[in-house]
Amino acid sequence: MPSATLHLTHAELLGQERRLAPELRDALCREIICCRLGSVFVDLPFYTNIIKMMLGYWLELPAENCPFALKMHRYHPDLFAWHFLQQTHRDGHLPPRQRLAIMGGFLSHIALDLEIHPLVNWCARRDLIRFGGNESHHHRLAEKYQSLFFHRELQGQDIIGTMRVFTEATRIVDHAAFLRVNPEPPVIRWCTEVLAGFFHESAPSMRQFASWIRAFRHFGFVVSLPIARQNSNRLGNDVNRRRYFDNEDFSFMEYFERAYDRSIELMNLAFDLLQSGDFSEDRRDQFLAQARIHNLAQPPEYGRLPALPQHGDLELGEAAI
What we know:
The two termini are about 20 Å apart. This protein has one domain. It is mostly helical. The chain is built from 15 helices and no strands. Helix 2 (about 20-30) packs across helix 7 and helix 6 (about 75-90) crosses helix 10 (about 185-200).
């Protein structure tokens, strides 16, 4: 998947996008915390224990097994998106504008995964062939460097290693807990009811969902530390830029631009649906055909990337990381 910081920045950019329906754009901008929550909603179950996650990263171990996160990416994400829109339309524990902002962030996540995940997968598999190890670790590295160089391109510096990533970017609920699990906020009740309505007995409890939010705050704190900035500065070199961001095989920014345009298309399509209030089976089939939502972990690539190299085609050497 693209990195959390890329998802967060992507959603924030859409809050200024004039091609979005004005009411939707206003919700993303005014309810930025809810927008951020939606933008990482699908990935929150990956955030279980940040210490274990960071140790695994530094030791180059396979990524943690997070069954519910994988289910959210693979188990009928098109039908889950439809269910999400139905719940957004209904009165619930949250004001309409907050529900709209969460929905917008959620759809921005889907669009980014659909367009960029094939590139991340390709880079991970290319490096597995070149350097060995395990694919999930190479996957995390591709996400990290693509986000790093994207933020440099966009803002002049990476967000990692700045206090903003902790004080703003990873604050995805009001009064976000850092030490204790706080399952009380209405937004947590709303989110868990959305999940329970689709995933039933496998859905998380409010306490479980709140623990993911707390772990995400821990992630924000860790990556805001100076050591994270030092690591990004050391490794954000021309070799890694060419390897992960811009080379003869692909341009990351072209993939991002497609994802950004697809976000606008998908969000406007969803907003029109909410305005119509028509959730009939015929309208569902029409929406799903237009939305073209596939498996988020393994979406189709449409042949933009070259075939992966074979071992005999490579000059094996030390990784650039």
